[in-house]
Specification:
Layout: E1 6-10, H1 14-26, E2 30-34, H2 37-47, E3 51-54, H3 63-72, E4 80-85, H4 90-99, E5 103-106, H5 111-120
Parallel strand pairs: 1-2, 1-3, 3-4, 4-5
Helix pairs in contact: 2-3
Length: 122
């Protein structure tokens, strides 16, 4: 098991985000969810996540813009920020890197991959 982390899952598919949050909680992590960019910023400012998994196709503020906003928070440079998205083309990966993401994971992602990511990367 990985070290316990504060994890924020940002996805407009609420069921998927909450299911993954429950799995992470059962693994000993403190996981929160947000369904859009403005909610994600509010949760991040209160929760100070260590790791953020962010969908790119969000309503309102997309994941690219949200990543840039998260990086402006006082603790934002220290967040491990991973895109968790259905977008998997090389151009999408280039865009996530430019937006400040540390990693790019393509859905569907097996929960064991998330746990390995938390062990290895975070």
């Amino acid at each position: 098991m990985s070290k316990s982390r504060r994890v924020l899952l940002i996805d407009d598919n609420v069921d998927a985000a909450e299911s993954l949050a429950q799995l992470l909680t059962l693994s000993g992590h403190d996981a929160r969810t947000a369904g859009d960019g403005s909610q994600a910023m509010r949760v991040a400012q209160e929760f100070h996540p260590e790791v953020v998994f962010c969908d790119l196709g969000l309503p309102g503020m997309n994941g690219f813009d949200l990543a840039k906003e998260l990086r402006t928070l006082p603790f934002g440079r220290d967040i491990v920020l991973a895109a968790l998205t259905g977008y998997g083309q090389p151009s999408d990966r280039e865009k996530t890197a430019r937006a400040g993401f540390d990693a790019h994971l393509v859905k569907p992602v097996d929960p064991s991959v998330i746990e390995s990511f938390l062990d290895d990367y975070a």
